[in-house]
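Fold this sequence, please.
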Amino acid sequence: MDLGLTDDQQLFQETTRKFLEDTCPLDEVRKIAEDEVEGFNRAWWRRGAELGWMSMLVSEDHGGGCISGNARADLSLVAEEMGRLVSPGPLVPTNVVAAAMSRLGTAAQREHLEGLISGESVAAWCSVGPYPGSGPMTHRADGEVRAVKTDGGYVLDGVSAPVEAGAQADLVVVTARLDDGLVQLVVPAGTPGLTTQAAQSLDLVRRFACIRFEQVELSADAVLGEPETAAGEVERQLEDAVVLQCAAMVGAVTRVFEFTVEYGEDRYSFGRPLVSYQALKHRFADMKMWLEASHASAGAAARAVDAGSPLAPELISVAKSYIGDHGPMIVQECVQFHGGIGVTWDHDLHLYLRRVTQDRTQFGTPHDHRERVASMLGI
């Protein structure tokens, strides 16, 4: 338990954990991986929305609201609990889009918020990074979407991949590149010229897609915010995405560490439990230290964004680079502690290893974020 949580936050965390354990345990996650095309059950998603999963980053004026006044810290509790059970659902992209539309959207665009908050619809974000630099990224190795301004609006061409929930989204926010900067546009699913193709993913329940734009014509009303400020807004969306991602990774790694300690206490070798061997105690101690540092860095990043701290971009990249390196390392160590059973399909370890490995690379690798910190520091 995080001793810094308020009573309301603790209750919310406990309620979320109980809901996930009752409605989507790991057995259900495995069934969804095999049978659910979308990767999550829409009715289940709506029930989660009733707990406030998609309203935290939305202004109260637009039907949202959080628990403690620190929206990212509150929503991180949901992300962490979903990480603990490798839960399905597009939590990150839907919240990133909802926050952006609440902050920047026109009255017509904000009409989409009701569906997002209630869970009736989900959203995807075609981003442009992150890659090294102190601000929004300037290059995308896997393609990008370009926008050409016309008399009546914009025409989009290009490819964005991988996009979480790209094929399941009812609404897509596209960050496209102009000759002189960036522009963000709201594109409803089914818009002529927009096509999606499922992409392979290590994660068994989160779905990704390649979204292709071929002469997609949009009116000026589709612009989200102002092109002049789009670069800064993309940075804010990136902050929201990485904060939630780090919390989810910490939740997943914490659960793996917990059941590995339990296994070490129950598993005997030469008449002694595994945890009684000094050499293994040292390895457990290292993992515990890395895990506590991961908790601390994820929490610091969330608090910095909530407080509007100028250090927020740096702390976010510090958190992602540290957790992105040490999270998979801890899970791999736990696989070794389990021995042969740890590398079987029947054991749950691979579900967690898949999740943290996928998250390690999305929205920037640890290497990307270390270079980003170095750039901020003028190195």
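The chain has eleven helices and nine strands. Strands lie at 123-126, 145-149, 153-164, 171-178, 181-188, 194-199, 208-219, 268-269, 272-273.
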